[in-house]
Amino acid sequence: MSDDSAQQQGIEQRISAHIAHNARVWNYWLGGKDHYEVDEQVGDMVTSMYPSIGEVARADRAFLGRAVTFLAGEAGIRQYLDVGTGLPTVENTHEVAQRIAPDARVVYVDNDPIVLTHARALLTSSAQGATSYVDADAHDPKAIIEAASRTLDLDRPVAIMLLGILNFVLDTEKATAIVRDLVAAVPSGSYLVLTHPTLELGGEGNEAAMKFWNENATPPITARTGAEVSAFLDGLELIEPGLVSCARWRTEGTEEGPLVAQFGVVARKP
Ligand SMILES: C[S@@+](CC[C@H](N)C(=O)[O-])C[C@H]1O[C@@H](n2cnc3c(N)ncnc32)[C@H](O)[C@@H]1O
Question: Which InterPro entries does the record match to this protein (predicted)?
């Protein structure tokens, strides 16, 4: 068996069609097709408890588009490390960045086996730029940095993107250490982009839906307060408007969607 087919077989063994997985349920909420029946059932149950979850997913993706547009345009960033990529959908990080800067280089990181297979097939780069895909766990920032350094020049600024991923690192000290290690590996002028669910911005049924998720799906999730999310940004300069609902981050000129219970922020390493 070739290395590639052995790797593919290993990936297939990690896929569970019997337990709802976050990447696939997120894809379902975004209107994608890459999910199983169990993901639809759990996704529908969460929606019945927390009706705005679909708006959260769409607002998060729209925030990604505006944040990368800002980074590739105004901030001149040419390198992206997108951890917790999710299943490919429309307006993926490299598409937004390479539309503005065709030479942009993007490393995608996820630990979901289906994301891995789809990303390799679909997240293909412009001729001038590069994309690569790393199968790694967010709990292991050193492995992520080492793998990313094969595609990115870590002596030049990098935008580290942690969208909807630190909420799967349940221990706040561990999450802080992950952010610290990732940010330490990139130079001054780099950026950190975060989205994170919270119970502080409304969202009826959010808490009960998270409890249901943690009892029925994987991986388990946690919400954080604004103060906890702000602590991840220690030592960084917040780009206006700071830490806000991701649906309210730099919406000028676009139609403002409903307020969602998901923080969004972009910060610069001085
Ligand atoms: C809510 S989705 C967010 C996707 C995308 N970043 C976005 O904002 O649309 C979270 C992603 O993080 C991935 N993920 C969850 N826990 C992870 C971990 N410990 N290491 C790496 N990826 C993880 C999931 O597989 C999923 O693709």
Answer: SAM-dependent_MTases_sf, SAM_dep_MeTrfase_SAV2177_type
